[in-house]
Amino acid sequence: LSLKFGDIGNLQGLAIRFLLTTSYYQLSVQNWFSLHRLQLLYNHSIQATFNATRIYAPASYSYHCEHVSSLQRYDALLIPSSANDLSKLWEVTFIDFQIQGFNIQEGHFAYAKDCASFFSPAILMGLVMSLILLLVLAYALHMLIHLKSLDRHYECKASPAYFGQMKDNDIGDEKEPLRSSGNESYELTNQQFRKIYI
After folding, report:
1. Distance between terminal CA atoms of the chain?
2. How far apart are alpha carbons 193 and 137 in whole angstroms?
3. Helix (H) or strand (E) holding 121
4. Which candidate, 198, 165, 159, places its Cα nearest to that of 182?
5. CB 4 within 8 A of CB 15
6. For the segment 77-125, what is each residue's pLDDT rounded down to a tens digit?
7. What region holds the V-type proton ATPase subunit S1/VOA1 transmembrane domain (predicted)?
8. What pLDDT score was predicted for residue 97?
């Protein structure tokens, strides 16, 4: 696939050439296309060549990516083919890039396979925050259940204080007069009680 721009300034016959390949994969039971190489041509010769990585899609789909670039800040999907040629001197960036090499119908792109990964930094941060919130919620529920079980434990174990009923006639039998100078005092002789009545 070749995009020809013509003469632009000092660049004569500027063109960008996309070398696409198609392969059949038995696991997916369908053909896939991939961008194998990108070439920059001007002055009727190849000036730079980049190998493409991770640019592929099913043959019946198109491929879409927000940035296809040779720069590291855009994930560098285009790699200079050799360190010795002039490719490393070029910085190539396509914005809102979409390509489809095969099975084109009515001049429109088919459904696009996007380059966005399932585990982008934003998605990973959201998963981590969700995990932290779930742990806090689980800890809070555990504490509530634990407090509830403590209340039940104390309700079962605790019993009201038992005080034996004393009959009035027994109290009279258990009293003995204490000898004192002026007041008459009594002491209970039962071993369970040690109170002194004056």
Report:
1. 118
2. 55
3. helix 121-157
4. 198
5. yes
6. 899 887 777 788 888 999 999 998 887 888 888 888 888 766 667 788 8
7. 117-154
8. 92
